[in-house]
Design goal:
heterodimer; A: 23% helix; B: mainly alpha; two-stranded parallel ribbon; 24 helices; 1% strand
Chain lengths: 341, 537
Amino acid sequence: MTEVRLEGVSKSFGALHAVREVTLEIDQGELMAVLGPSGCGKTTLLRTIAGFERPDTGSVVVAGREVAGPGRFVPPERRRIGMVFQDYALFPHLTVKANVAFGLAARPRDEREPLTRRTLELVGLQHKADRYPHELSGGERQRVALARAMAPEPALVLLDEPFSSLDASLRAGLRREVELILRDAEATALLVTHDQEEALSLADRLAVMREGRIVQVGAPEEVYVRPASRWAAQFVGEVNVLAGVAHGTGVETELGVFDLRAPASGSVHVAVRPEQLELRADHDGNAEVVAREFRGHDVLYRLRHEAGRVVLVQLPSLELHEVGERVFVRPAASAVTTLVD
Amino acid sequence: MKSDGIDAWAILTVLCAAAVAAPLIGLPLSFAVAPGRLSEFSRLVPEAIGATAVLVAGVGAGTLLLGTALAALVSFCDFPGRGWIEWVLVLPLAMPGYVFTLFALGLDVPGIRSSLGAVCVFTLVLYPYVYLLARAAFLAQSRTLLEAARGLGLSRRAAIARVGLPLARPAILGGVALALMEALADFGTVNLLGVQTFTDAIYKVWFIAFDRDAAMQLATLLVSVTLTLLVLERLARGRARYHQLAARGDLAPPVRLRGVAATGAVLAPLALVGLVVIAPLAQLAVWSIESIRDGLLAPEFATAARNSVLLAAMSAVLVPLAAILLAYGARASRSRLAAGAARTATIGYGLPGSVVAVAVIVPLGWIERRIDAVAGTGLLLTGTVIGLFYAYLVRFLALAWGAVEASFTRIPRQLDEAARGLGADRLEVLARVHVPLMRAGLVTAALLVFVEVMKELPATLLLRPLGGDTLAIAVWQATTESLFRTAALPALLIVLVGLLPVAAMIRLSGRRGAELEAAQTAGAWAEELEERRVVPA
């Protein structure tokens, strides 16, 4: 069931078109991520949904109610949307408990206390209820911000780059924690991020955004495997874009023949992910290792192909090749590729 | 269609700003309404210009020398007791010029009733403006600059003269401009000493000739002088801000004074503050006791004290409230119109109280006649405290606004948005998030307004309702009649109340202890002083 529907939403600031004609649907209980480089308009989109910006055109419908549209603008306090801010925006003069209870002022008195307690338990901070924000760690602050946004049981929770002000070492663990909290509460959530790893690992679906437009929407694996454009392929993960000639279900490139996801013919470009290639040491090989990025569980090699281009290859770190080594690079056995522009 | 209240807040801000700024904008119109009226007072204008020129030159030079010398002494030299002498030197801020004049007149200091006497009085009570700004500038200078000058062959003294002073020049001139504006705004001192400046002329034209148009024209001339000073101050400051960026925590180590020099460094400031604050306080205390013993207290003393406290207390509530309205309106509506309006509303503080009084009387009188025609209420506005509150609002709004606005800018906008996302409307955001977070700023604003209203003389004098004397008026009245003992107790009370904010500032710096933090406090305080007087860009 659709919980949030954006239709043709645009927002400009003077000559800057921050959001252009965005149409997007989010299902109930779904965790959606808007992924895009900084300046692509994703934060403006989020603020427009929250009601901090007024769209120039288009409409926003939340839980069956139009909150923004032609001749209609519901102020943020009446939208039933919770928001987690990038640096949390916790009220420094209130305790954790009072922060979480802030949005419950309109509830009957006897509901507030149990609801606050339940929400704090949900994020595992019941023992810090009487602390002040400055007495908490970064991760705890974030969980308070999340609890505060969720306590009024909003129809939608918005998260604006929620992990960007945390240490890298904390990020992965918290990401999982936040995901579990949101799923536990069966919340509908929209997360904005420029971190592709975050978006890919967290979201049910991704919306890839560029220069104010949504260029692709889909499940993470779909966006990764079937990028809608060369730009999307390059932005979501690493990619080799190869020129080739398509004959039906196969495409012939300078690195060999790949299977095509959809039949085509003629001169095309295909997106080949680094893990869709394999290599072996070979003195008469067709490429040379020019750089190696060791990442623990895998290794990313940067090769110079004999035709002159740079090729990225990702392999498990079981066997290592040295910089300067001659290698032979070719399509991996199951490599199926997608056409890009 | 749903409105989210953007327009309501913007409109409120603009209305509030218009109410405050309109009378001042109306001042020059008096030349159009009654041209040539001033020629009836042909002797007043040249005399006022002459006296003003003497004051500007004398007070400018006096505060420049005294303030800068003292600031250099405590910034570049170390001597026993420097830590508290630094702060003792600020105390004269609490001494209104007319109270010191009362002291000097009461002791019958020879030659005091002259322009030179007025210059001396103003220099003694106004030098802290220069002192504070210069000191903040000196302490913000990085030691490397002075060390570089030493490395290039300059003696320590020469390095201070050729590097330290020039770098602090914008701040020093800013301080001089503040002191001069205070001197130009003063009425009590010049009136009591018989120096015929603009404020004195306005009073005479108003109360003796009852010519409001001429008074407005004189006020317009005085405003032009004040605005010229403001512009000069702006120009002098130039990019002063950049100097403040010099490395923190990298203070030039002061030179340790010994022997005679150290003794002089301790005694000179103490003698100065003894003369300007301690001796007058002691003398006032003695006179107060005598006046009580001999039954010399004015019969209306109790009423005056009550009036002062009531006026000051109510202003201390009303003016910060208006400041919150303005500052929050500009913040909440986020429109340029509202932001501009908020700044316009703060121009009153650069202006002398007598100018403000003259400026507000005309629109008030106009509205009053309209209301009277309908309801027969008589002098509803100009004959009651309403007119007085209006004048205080115009004059002191900037003071409260500065403190409130400074607190507002420290509250991140995301907090507003977070609160609204949680269902709070704009008024609730103000009540549940902003006000609790700015409690300190609000107390500061209230305290500053309270003290200023207690001290205020010319606007109160011109606008007070019949029988509405205040302590300040009681001091002035008794002094004009040479009843120094009668004037003493109200004067003593004004000075003691005026010491509150100065004491608060000193305690604040004392509690934090560290040299550096004291410097920063001085900087913040100096900036605040500066903000109070500068027409925002």
